[in-house]
Amino acid sequence: MVLTEHLIHPDSHARFSEIRSGKAVFEDGSELPVFNGSPILFGKDSIFSADDVLASKQTTQDKAHLDTRNFKNYVRRRLLPDLVKDFNIEKRYKHLSSMLPVGSKVLVVGTGEKKEYYRNLFSQCTVVTSDVHAAFSPDYVFDGHFIPFADSTFDLVLAAQVIEHVMQPWLFCAELQRVVKIGGLLQIEAPQNYPYHAEPYDFFRYTFTGMRSLFPHCAVEKTEITEGNASMVAVSASTWLINTSSNRLMRSGWLLVTRLLFGWMKYLDRLTPNRRSVSMPKGYAFTFRKDGRQRIPRDLLNEFYDLKP
């Protein structure tokens, strides 16, 4: 377990004490379960359940869909072209890593299957991985509506393709800002246009101004479109054709056909300048820096014009 000196109970806020008899024990005597080495730190009001984690119940992510020993998964994930591609993700993350001094503390919210990827990416840092399930053995299992770490713990908080799965994003974003240090960074990435997925844990989509409004204690370091209009059109056309039938074989057939028909379209996004004036991108990436200044709604809205390229 990492950074236990900053760990707190999600309800009482008592400090972590020790692991004893398979339980995470806190200084007020309260206990929470541990599953395969990952403490399950859900608060009493969470939509997620420790019992579901202990029973390995599928919630936001189906581990079986990633198993390429299954022929269908192998074809879908290894042979067919993707409809979208974030061409700048490696460059963006390497630059983000270069901004962090040696010894920085990084929290990844919604790690999924990328635990080792993030640890290698931020190899000079102490990396804490987390998720709402234990399918890929994150360091901690918790609900982002209350992050079980003390104020100002982290130098970077990264949440990629997570915020759309949060039922109360205003509370989630307040928590992200609470646990990052003054001067620290928040990397937030989310779709503006994308089909309903990971149901029923899919709640919101975000425009530029909508995302900006959720981080009033932060300045905007950088924004970029992750996938543009062409990717959005390819995904929409594919989804429409797949949903013309409820028959599994027909749907699989349309998946195959539309991947082959539309998989090339994502490359058209490379011809489009990376401007916020692209009105229907698949998604955005925001890099925020917490400065502690409280911005009123009018300030946040005016930044649309101040930052416009």
CATH topology: Rossmann fold
Largest sheet: 7 strands, mixed
Shape: globular
- On the 0 to 100 scale, the average pLDDT is 93
- Please give the order of strands in the largest beta sheet: 7-6-5-8-9-11-10
Tally of separate helices = 9
Q: Structural class, judged by helices and strands? A: alpha/beta
Multimeric status of the protein: single chain
How do the strands and helices of this protein lay out in sequence?
Elements: E1 16-20, E2 23-26, E3 31-35, E4 38-39, H1 50-54, H2 71-79, H3 89-98, E5 105-109, H4 115-121, E6 126-131, E7 140-141, E8 154-160, H5 169-179, E9 180-191, H6 208-213, E10 218-227, H7 229-242, H8 248-262, E11 283-290, H9 297-306
Parallel strand pairs: 5-6, 5-8, 6-7, 8-9
Antiparallel strand pairs: 1-2, 2-3, 3-4, 9-11, 10-11
Task: Write a brief structural summary.
With 309 residues, the protein is of the alpha/beta class. The protein has helices at 50-54, 71-79, 89-98, 115-121, 169-179, 208-213, 229-242, 248-262, 297-306; strands at 16-20, 23-26, 31-35, 38-39, 105-109, 126-131, 140-141, 154-160, 180-191, 218-227, 283-290.
